[in-house]
Amino acid sequence: MVDFDPLVPFGWTEAVAAQYLPLLDADCVPARIVRMDRGECDVMTPTGPARATCPRADSPVSGLCTGDWVSLDARSHVRAQLPRRTAITRSVASGRSEGQVLAANVDTVLICAPADGDVDLGRIERMLALVWESGAQPVVVLTKADTAEDLPLDEVRAVAPGASVLAVSATAGSGLDVLVAMLDGTVALLGPSGAGKSTLANALLAAEVFATDTVRATDKKGRHTTVHRELRPLPTGGTLIDTPGLRGVGLWDAAEGISRTFSDIEKLAADCRFADCAHDAEPGCAVRAAVESGEVPERRVRSYRKLGKENAWMEARSDKRLQAERNQVWRGIAKEQRRMYRERGSRR
Description:
Blueprint: H1 14-20, E1 29-36, E2 40-45, E3 48-53, E4 69-72, E5 78-81, E6 87-91, E7 99-104, E8 108-114, H2 121-134, E9 137-143, H3 153-158, E10 164-167, H4 176-182, E11 186-190, H5 197-205, E12 230-233, E13 239-242, H6 255-261, H7 263-269, H8 286-293, H9 298-347
Parallel strand pairs: 8-9, 8-11, 9-10, 11-13
Antiparallel strand pairs: 1-2, 1-4, 2-3, 4-5, 6-7, 12-13
Helix pairs in contact: 2-6
C-alpha cells in the first residue's frame, strides 16, 4: 500500500487525491515537480525526493513547470502531466504567439512591489490581470516598507479591486503575521528583480533558502539572484514557489483577468451610450464623465485601454498562428493525396 504522507507538506490533500488517483496507471505514483531543469526535474514522491526524467519536448507531455503534479513510473520517468487547477501564464519574452507557464497549481500569488521608490501602478495592474486570469487569488505586497518614505496603500488599493493590499518589511519583520494569515495552499511570489521576493521568501520559510542581493542605488534595479522556480514547504503549512524577477510581463489570453482588474471601469462602461464605446471622445461616455469628475484617474483608463489592445493583438496573432498550423496540416494531407493518385495512375 502506498503511503502518501511524504507528499502532504508539498500540497497533497484529500481533494487532490480524489482528483488524481483515478488517473494513474497501475505502475505509477503521483509526484510534484519541485524544480525544473532541461530534460530532468526534481520531484517529491510518496517515498521522498527523487530526480525524474522528463519526456522529449516533442512528446504529448511537454511544457512541464514547477508546481505541476505528474504521473511517475518505477524508473522515475514522467509518464503524464496531471490536470492543472491553475496556471500562471504569460506570453513568451520574444513576442511570439506562445504562452509560457510560470507556475502551476497555485492558490495564492503575492505580487511584490518595492515601496522604497516610486510604486509602478501600471505594472501592478498588469500583474493583477495575469494572476486573475490564472485562477489564483492575488495579494499585492508592498515590500521594504521600513525604508519607504511614503506608503501609497490607498493608491494601490484603488487599482486592485478584489485583492488584499498590505505593506511588509521582511528584514524588520513588520506585517509578516498579517501576510501569513492570508496564505492559502500553494503560494507563488511574482515581481521584478529587486522587489525583495527572495528576502520575503526566506522570512516566510524561516530559513535562508534563497540567495539575496542588494539593488543598484542609481536606478533601484535588482540583480537576478533567483534563476530557477523552486517549490518549498512552508513551516506554517502549504508550499511556496519563488520565481526569478520578471522584466517583462506580456499578457496571454487574459480577457477575464483584465475584466476583473478593471471591474470599476467596466461597471461604469455599462452606462455608456454606445455598446462599443472606446472611452476616448464618444458622447455619453460614462467612463470619460468619471475621469472628468475625478472619480477615476486618467492614467487608469489609459492602462485599461492599453492592456485590452495588447491582449486583443496577442489573441489575433495566436489565431493566425493556429490557422497557419491548420493550413500546413491540410497542405500535407493534400500533398499525400496527390502522391497517392499519381501512384495509382502509374500502376494502370
